[in-house]
């Protein structure tokens, strides 16, 4: 049994975002992290110290976290980081005994390398279908359709934005709705 590692919301968001990328990079950071800049360095240092992420030399500017002389350094999730987020999701499932909660895609990313990405792809397809509705979808609807935790659903929205989807957020009576909007021609 994998020991559950305590992760705060910011660390979970960072690891979830990286776990959903093929290259495992934390960069670019999820949009929600921009509001967390004062805590970001501390969270990253903790993840590096616990070997949940590692620093690697990169050649792509878009993956650069910092520059050390003439060396560009990026941040990448490790196998231990994937295991930690998987254990976190599994523990969340145990706490929600009897619910319809399914493990987040981060729990299956290592498997996806060898088995294909059909499970994650079908969840992303469900998310896109919900977001393409005229009224869009709430975060609660997205998590209900996928079984993901809210931070994973938000990371998926960031991933869709990165892939070129324009996602608008509107608020009605205190509830946020997310919707894919056609790009202006």
UniProtKB/TrEMBL annotation:
InterPro entries: DUF3489
Annotated spans, Disordered: 91-120
Protein's UniProt name: DUF3489 domain-containing protein
């Amino acid at each position: 049994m994998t020991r559950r590692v305590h992760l705060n919301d910011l660390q979970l968001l960072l690891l979830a975002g990286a776990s959903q990328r093929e290259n495992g990079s934390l960069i670019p950071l999820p949009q929600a992290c921009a509001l967390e800049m004062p805590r970001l360095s501390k969270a990253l240092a903790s993840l590096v110290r616990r070997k949940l992420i590692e620093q690697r030399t990169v050649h792509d500017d878009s993956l650069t976290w910092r520059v050390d002389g003439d060396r560009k350094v990026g941040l990448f999730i490790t196998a231990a980081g994937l295991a930690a987020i998987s254990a976190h999701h599994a523990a969340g499932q145990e706490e929600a005994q009897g619910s319809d909660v399914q493990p987040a895609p981060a729990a299956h990313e290592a498997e996806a390398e060898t088995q294909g990405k059909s499970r994650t792809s079908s969840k992303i397809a469900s998310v896109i279908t919900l977001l393409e509705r005229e009224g869009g979808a709430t975060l609660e609807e997205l998590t209900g359709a996928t079984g993901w935790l809210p931070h994973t659903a938000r990371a998926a929205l960031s991933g869709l934005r990165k892939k070129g989807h324009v996602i608008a957020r509107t608020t009605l009576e205190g509830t946020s709705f997310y919707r894919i909007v056609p790009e202006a021609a």
